[in-house]
Amino acid sequence: MSLRKVLTKKELTFLSLGGIIGSGWLFAPLAAAAYAGPLSIASWIIGGLMMIIIALAYAEISSALPESGGIIRYPHYTHGSTLGFIMAWSYIISAISTVAIEAVATTTYISHFFPTLTSGNQLTLEGIVVTYALLIIFFLVNYYGVKFLGRVSHGIGWWKIIIPTTTAVILLAYFNPANVVFGKTACYQGFNGMLYAIPESGIVFSYLGFRQAIEYGGEGRNPQKDIPFAVISSLLISMAIFISLQLGFLGVVKTDGNWAGLLNSPLANAPLISVIEMLPIVFSFWVGILLFDAIISPAGTGIIYLGTTTRSFYASAKSGYFPSNLTKINEKGIPIFALIISLIASALFLLPIPSWYQIVGISSSATVLTYIMGGIGVETMRRIAPNIKRSYLLSNLRILAPLATIFAGLLIYWSGFSTLFYIFTLVILGLSAYKRGVTGILSGVITLLNSYELYVETSALTSASWYFIPFIIIDTLVLTFLILTSEEGKFSAWAIPLLSGTLILSYISPFGLYDVIPFPYDLIVTSVFFFIIHKIAVKSSLPALKVESPVNS
């Protein structure tokens, strides 16, 4: 059986909107304010504009090759199986964690009225049980087929637009300019805090939902025209909503300049409900609506992302990274075994990190690592497959394609060294598993021991240590071995300087443990670095697209 082509342009648009407007709008205004203060408005604008450039690159790629799990498949087509696996592994990590995030978000908001569900910012055992029940609901909606999923997403999509927009209007009606003052922010101050907030507060996490129209592209009725429309329109609509919400939040919350304190304040578990409760009692009815939305919005996004994770496993299995059983389609047109594995993986992800604020940075960075292929992929496909029919062409390719790569690279870089350390380690462990055999096991063991030693030497990644030099040498050697000795590894060799170089730059940056390159010079250095990576990656592609079936030309 094959996937069913039943999704309309409107349903694809609402799938992307549903992915964007999830738990992010419920938590990110507080986290962004904590990290950047009033500059959080600029964080949303910069993050949104960067994401639009990245999305434009994917709009052309998906209009040429629309298929489910596309973001995973495209690197496989242009650079072969090894790079395809790296991006697929990173993407699956992000997709699994996103399902967990959305379920955690719903439970966390409910804990505002049922305090036993959380302790601090983390779920209790009782909270984890409730969250697992939500995951089962996500599973059931996906099980009943993509058309049912499209109708659910369409219906929830209107709700997701109306409620955040109305909340923003209410907050702006009570906007007090005296509350918008500069002061102490968490982690970093000034412009560094503004940039750090983009990946770490949930801003990038929110915008990343645009990918849903691409992921479900193979099930669209007219994907070559509908996907570009769905991607760009969903980003523009959500960007306007998020900026309005952030401005309203800043104007209502009185912090006296201590923005950093928000993360550990009573507001953290249910930011918007807590803020609405500060307003005149006439708005008390809106608290109930927000609580209902705190169930609907994250749950809707969780349902969509469980489907995304399923299609990611499905696409990875089609590429040969996972067992072929994961490509089996049931009578409802759903990759059933991939769906079951997605549910189990999401449930397991909850156990070590049962907190929205802790999961969101890792999820965002893992996703953006895969998005670095947007600019590289679109220019590569123009070079090696110029005759493929495209309903959308990215204008000014030689400018916007490298810019998309640079923007994706900067979003990764701004995540900070501690987040990138985990992503880097997980990528090498994934490659070790992909390698299989004794060498794969040995590579994984060396990586784990090396990472643990750095973790200890840096006091849990909080202070600089001499051991970073042997750490990066050992991990780079392991990474080089795993890539160059694998199938089609020579086409993926540029990923070695990408991963190791990004980690080194992060370590010696204002976002790392040993600040050598201050702002704004770090911005120049990293932009040049990612530009060079872009050019090398485009030149290092396969001589022709690695597709299993003919494409329209």
What this model shows, in words?
By secondary structure, this protein is mostly helical. 68% of the residues lie in helices and 1% in strands. The chain has a two-stranded antiparallel sheet. Helix 1 packs across helix 13 and helix 18 packs antiparallel against helix 19. The mean pLDDT is 84.
Q: Which helices and strands occur, and which strands form pairs?
A:
Blueprint: H1 9-20, H2 24-36, H3 40-64, H4 70-79, H5 81-110, E1 118-119, E2 122-123, H6 125-143, H7 146-173, H8 190-200, H9 203-207, H10 212-215, H11 223-252, H12 271-276, H13 284-318, H14 336-350, H15 356-371, H16 373-384, H17 397-413, H18 417-435, H19 437-457, H20 468-484, H21 495-507, H22 521-539
Antiparallel strand pairs: 1-2
Helix pairs in contact: 1-7, 1-11, 1-13, 2-8, 2-11, 3-8, 3-11, 3-16, 3-17, 4-5, 5-6, 5-13, 5-14, 5-15, 5-18, 6-13, 6-14, 7-11, 7-13, 13-14, 15-17, 15-18, 16-17, 16-22, 17-22, 18-19, 18-20, 18-21, 19-20, 20-21, 21-22
